[in-house]
Amino acid sequence: MTGDRKYWVETLVRIAYPVLHSLSERRLVNDMPVEAGEGDRANYTYLEALGRTLAGIAPWLEHGPRCGDEGEIRARIAGMARLAIEAATDPNSPDFMNFTKGGQPLVDAAFLANGVLRAPNELYELLDEKVKANLVIALKATRIIRPVFSNWLLFSAMIEAALYRMGAEDWDRMRVDYALRQHEQWYKGDGVYGDGPAFHWDYYNSFVIQPMMIDILDVIGDQFGDWSTLRNKVMKRAVRYAAVLERMISPEGTFPPIGRSLAYRFGAFQHLSLMALRDELPEELLPTQVRCGLTAVIRRQIEMPGTFDDSGWLRIGFAGRQPDIGEGYISTGSLYLCTTVFLALGLPSDAEFWQGEAEWTSLMIWSGRNLKLDKAMSNDI
After folding, report:
1. Against a cut of 0.85, is the pTM above it?
2. Radius of gyration of the chain, Cα coordinates, nearest whole angstrom
3. Which long-range contacts (CB under 8 A, 24 or more apart) does 38-42 make?
4. CB 81 within 8 Å of CB 366
5. DSSP per residue over 41-80, as a string?
6. In 284-335, which ranges are E strands?
7. Consecutive 10-residue runs of the chain (381 residues): their mean pLDDT?
8. How far apart are CA 348 and CA 330, in angstroms?
């Protein structure tokens, strides 16, 4: 394990370890500090930390090496992750999590479900039967929560897609269909969806919308002909949006601090990492240049002083500790959405993504290189 891959693994483990270790020992409520924008976030922050961490770490757990130094680390973390799911869904656990009170549990049950879809063997099949049953019960319990008329519709759909994958015959097609139809209506053009009827300058197309649409349709897109047709459109738009995100990375490894939820840090590049993992990057992008650009961003943010507290927990901020950058819904657990930038760790070490060095687009163009024009995609897609 060398170079950028080693750095990615070490950084991901550094972020995820406090969450998974404490929860695997049923000490999360005691161990995790709750830095929050509002006073009630302790009702939600623990499920946030679990769901978001698993959503990001899942491809590495599922596809990472089984031997060598990296394999040993992966196996240890995977075991913690399964114990964490057990602790979070066991009603007798001191860390049993809130899946029903308030609206927020819908969000993070969906990230937990997304983690299961991304690592169905490590995070579901290898669970004890009782834990599987508890997980299904917990996910179904969120059905009492009515989603906000926004990207939240995809949270309900993601949970149903995971229930389908786990063999639940009563998975709700309507919740999936409603989310997909609404997001099709909210498509704004050039690879970008609105977050609800309105368009906002932020990174929610990458935090939630496009990755969840892709993962949902991967699992159940063949259930109906119109879902299959939609999936083709979704993937074409996804390619364009990946190109846009790559161009957001400055020559210095920064990106525009635009919109809400900036405390998710480099989780803003979840979608770009997902497209690299899927080997579906735009044809003009080399996997190597995407890795180099993402690594520059990761280094720029994670190495800012104040990012972690003395016990290794993330602190609210975009570049270091900046508590005023967190909205009222942001708390310590929220911050772990940043792990989704590491999705490409699901690629094997010999994949092109991990080979060599290359400049990313902004670095090339600001160096005076003569590059082809960037072009908007057709409005017919």
Report:
1. yes
2. 19
3. 38/328, 38/329, 38/331, 40/102, 41/329, 41/330, 41/331, 41/333, 42/331
4. no
5. GGGTHHHHHHHHHHHHHHHHHHHS-SSHHHHHHHHHHHHH
6. none
7. 91 98 98 87 95 98 95 98 98 98 97 98 98 98 97 98 97 98 97 94 98 98 95 98 98 98 98 98 97 98 98 98 95 98 98 98 96 88 76
8. 34
